[in-house]
Design goal:
The protein has two domains: 8-189, Spore Coat Polysaccharide Biosynthesis Protein SpsA, Chain A, CATH 3.90.550; 194-273, no CATH class. Strands 1, 2, 3, 4, 5, 6, 7 and 10 form an eight-stranded mixed sheet that branches. It has 274 residues and is an alpha/beta fold. 43% of the residues lie in helices and 23% in strands.
């Protein structure tokens, strides 16, 4: 009996990649993020929640690449998990890469993503490193391994989805071991000044306190006293952020401040309710 003919088209098929990016007023970083994925993206899915700067001009400029479909969804802010799920559901490439609007892809990571797709993995985990005041932090918040690449068919089968409690969202896949760690890093471009970083920590601490309050979680004087120094010691000593120089000290201090603000806000909310 003769061998069945090979499907040469299937054998030579190069997987397509959708890149999803939620954003709002990110003109300072969006250009670098888009340039970093120009050579690997076949579809760009952007969910914008009301930008008033030039962010959308940068997104629309990607239409001139000629190699990438651009899908722009303009909507109100739905929260971290729901907004990102909206973007994920709109992706149609063979694979989907999740980026935030301040996370350019390193050349090494771009090559690793190509390789992972060619190997047919169901998903891939990436290490994210923070760049703070021109310093790439090698210790503070390290390692930060996150699932960032998934086979889009798993999303359609509800085997890959966003989960978590705002603002701590994450992408999950069933089974979790199907997403190996790949080479390269995702660079998180943080705020240029400590004041801006601290203001962002305040905003996220409020969201976190609101989510915890809605879930029935409580704070206490003990947590007010112990959580902030615990966060500081974790980054400074256990993670070794002091080796990142003065930027590492500031980031450890921001972690402590965020912990303090979160528990202060939660403590206030529960007493206002009581």
């Amino acid at each position: 009996m003769p061998d069945a003919p090979q499907d040469n088209h299937a054998a030579s098929h190069t997987p397509t990649l959708s890149v999803m990016i939620p954003c709002k007023n990110n003109e300072g970083t969006m250009g670098r993020v888009l340039n970093s994925i120009r050579d690997i993206a076949n579809q760009l899915v952007v969910v914008d929640s009301g930008s008033t700067d030039t962010t959308l001009d940068l997104v629309n400029a990607a239409r001139r690449w000629g190699t990438c479909e651009v899908l722009l969804i303009e909507t109100h802010w739905r929260g971290f998990v729901k907004t990102k799920q909206l973007a994920l559901d709109a992706c149609s490439g063979d694979y989907t890469l999740w980026l935030d609007s301040d996370e350019p892809v390193s050349p090494e990571l771009a090559e690793a993503i190509r390789d992972a797709m060619k190997r047919g993995v169901d998903g891939a985990t990436v290490n994210r490193m923070v760049e703070y005041k021109g310093t790439l932090l090698k210790h503070c918040w390290q390692p930060e391994h996150r699932l960032r690449l998934v086979r889009t068919s798993l999303v359609q089968d509800n085997k890959a989805r966003f989960a978590g409690i705002d603002p701590h969202d994450y992408l999950e896949i069933d089974p979790p071991h199907a997403a190996p760690l790949i080479e390269g890093v995702l660079i998180h471009e943080s705020f240029p000044t400590f004041a801006q970083h601290l203001e962002n920590a305040r905003r996220l601490s409020l969201v976190s306190a609101q989510s915890m309050h809605a879930a029935g979680k409580r704070s206490s004087p003990i947590k007010l006293m112990t959580s902030p120094p615990g966060a500081f010691i974790k980054q400074l000593l256990l993670k070794g952020s002091w080796r990142d120089g003065y930027a590492g000290w500031l980031c450890a201090a921001t972690s402590a401040a965020a912990s303090l603000m979160k528990h202060m806000m939660l403590y206030e909310m529960q007493h206002d309710r009581d």
